[in-house]
Each structure stands twice: as structure tokens, then as C-alpha cells.
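Appendix B, record 7
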Amino acid sequence: VCAKYSESVYSYEEPQILLPGATKVKRDNCGIRETPLIVGGEVARPKEFPHMALIGHSEKDDENALIHWQCGGSLISERWIVSAAHCTATRSGLAKWATLGDLKVLSDEDEEFTDPVTVRIVKRINHPDYQPGRGYNDISLYKLERDIQFNAFIRPICLNTETNQYDGKAIASGWGHTKWRGTSSQDLLRVVLNLYDSRECDNLFKKAQKPGLLAKTPQGISMQSMVCAWERGKDTCQGDSGGPLQKRLEEPYCMYSILGITSFGEECAKDLPGVYTRISHFVPWIESIVWP
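C-alpha cells (predicted):
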């Protein structure tokens, strides 16, 4: 499936000089850089994260009602987005809208470089073991009202299936706050973070003795279902919830693999890693719904 999705990075155009038997010209629209909620982040480039979704919450179904864009998500198929379960219902209402292919929130400035679409979310499926207020099983699937047409600006992300402990670096992306209790970024941001061993992460959280974090993880950091990432001065922040922690793939071409979903942390870029829902642990559950 992932290899099939990567084909949408190409477009086919009529040749400038039409000759008998001339075929369409294949154009590569990959926007991913060669180098491998966000503090210390950089503004993302057009087409760099074509799977990014902006999730909008509202108390009403009317598309003219006030929409609060509070979470992120990742497109994983023509019809489904994966996000955090704690994003499904907020004080502003249910997750009811998804905007894809956008860079700048509530702005037309980027229309020259993007091709955004906003689609209604018609079904929200939280993981059956998720408990509000806890950090475990913080994953949800959102079904869109219609199939999405893929192009250079909108394309799914691959699901990571590796169950071993991650190391190295990964990229988080989102429209989150750029400082603790600050205002949200209008621009889609990216930040490179170090991946932490879950045992090391668990030890750091236990030593910190933060009541809010201990309440979220009474059994500690789960090595099977969580992954931690951090870089001093850089982190995912409020508003980045539900967005992806990802790595670029060598194959298929111009595709990312989602390692985690932004779940929770202690303030922003402080002295503790951010915690992400580990995708590989939930692949069977995701596949049973998205590709039954």
C-alpha cells in the first residue's frame, strides 16, 4: 500500500512540443528535504509533510460555525487520519473537520504553494483501551466524509512496523505553540528530536516526580506502546497533539514512516522528553479498521 501511495508524488504533463506519438512528461514533485506543537522549530517547506492534517473542533455540524483548530493528525489512506485519542473531544467540541495540504493556519498567503482541502470527519474511533486523563493507548482514527485525491501536496504517511527500541533522530511536525503558554504558530513547523530508550525515559519521569505526569502514567512509561523524544530547547508543545513523529524512508521514494503520535509532556522543551504513542504497537488495530 505504501509503495502505491508514493506514486502520487509524480504528475504527468503534456510535453511543450507536441509531436506525433509524444507521451506525457513525468514530473517529480517530491518536497522532502535531503537532511534529516514546536519549540526550536523551523518553518516547513511546501510539500515537505504532505500527510499532515490540521484537526478542527466545533460544537456544531454547520461548516459556517466557529471551528477551533487545536490538534494535528496524519493521513494514512484515502479516507482515514490517525491522531491522538485525547484530541477527539475538547472543550471546543468534537473533532469534526480536517484540513489537508496546508502550511499556514487561517491564511490565504500560502495558496501559491499549497492546495488545501477541508473535509468533514464523519467517524471517530478511539482505541478501546484509552482512558481520558491517562497517557496509555492515546490513539484515534478519524474517517473522512469522502476519499481524498492524492497530489504533490496531499499524500499518506507509511505506518512503522518495527517493534524494537528506536534510536537516532526523528522529526516532529505541527502547528503548536512555540513556547509554554504561548500563542500557536500560524506556520507548519518541523523540529528534529533525539529518540530515547523507553527505560531511560521511564527513569527520568520517575525521578522528576511531577504529579501530572505520574497521574498520566501510573504504570510508568510503556516500552511496548510509547516512545520518547527530546532535544534540549526543542520539543513538541501544546497544540501539536495528535501530530506525527516521523522518519524519512529510503524506500518507497519520497515517503515518511510514522513512529509515534504526539501525546503529552511536561511544559515545552523543559528537562523531560515528550511522550508519543508508538504506532507499531497499534498496527493490527489500525489495519483491522482501515484495511479490513
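Remarks on this record: The CA atoms of residues 58 and 64 lie 10 Å apart. Helices lie at 2-6, 198-208, 211-216, 279-290.
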